């Protein structure tokens, strides 16, 4: 069994699509109209057949509440792996990305946390 799609709740699909593609560098794989929303799935440019990240609208009250509560508590909604966290941190800062935590050693890994501008904290990690 493989994970083929995972999702993250977003406040605004268009804003999220712009942030995740233009700032973080993901590639749009699907953008399918689904009523008033869209099925927007992104992939890593390094693995276009890999796990897809679905930008899920937070239109449901439970989704909105969940997203707000974990954000307010400083809990990242998901985690992305990077090869060189310091290089990636610098690149993202230069792209205008705001961080809530700069690269920090945590045991055998180094982590940093960024704000995706659509209601989520995202952790990046280097093993």
Automatic annotation (TrEMBL):
Domain VOC: where?
A: 1-127
Q: What SUPFAM superfamilies would the database entry show?
A: Glyoxalase/Bleomycin resistance protein/Dihydroxybiphenyl dioxygenase
Can you tell me which residues the record assigns to a coiled coil?
none
Mention any Pfam family matching this sequence. Answer: Glyoxalase
Q: What's the name of the protein?
A: VOC family protein
């Amino acid at each position: 069994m493989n994970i083929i799609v995972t999702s993250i709740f977003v406040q605004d699909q268009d804003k999220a699509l712009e942030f995740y593609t233009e700032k973080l560098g993901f590639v749009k794989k699907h953008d399918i109209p689904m009523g008033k929303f869209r099925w927007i799935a992104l992939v890593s440019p390094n693995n276009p057949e890999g796990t897809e990240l679905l930008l899920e609208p937070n239109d449901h009250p439970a989704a909105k509440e969940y997203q707000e509560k974990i954000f307010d508590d400083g809990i990242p909604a998901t985690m992305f792996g990077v090869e060189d966290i310091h290089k990636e941190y610098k690149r993202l800062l230069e792209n205008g990305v705001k961080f809530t935590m700069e690269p920090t050693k945590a045991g055998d890994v180094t982590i940093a946390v960024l704000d995706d501008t659509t209601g989520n904290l995202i952790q990046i990690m280097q093993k």
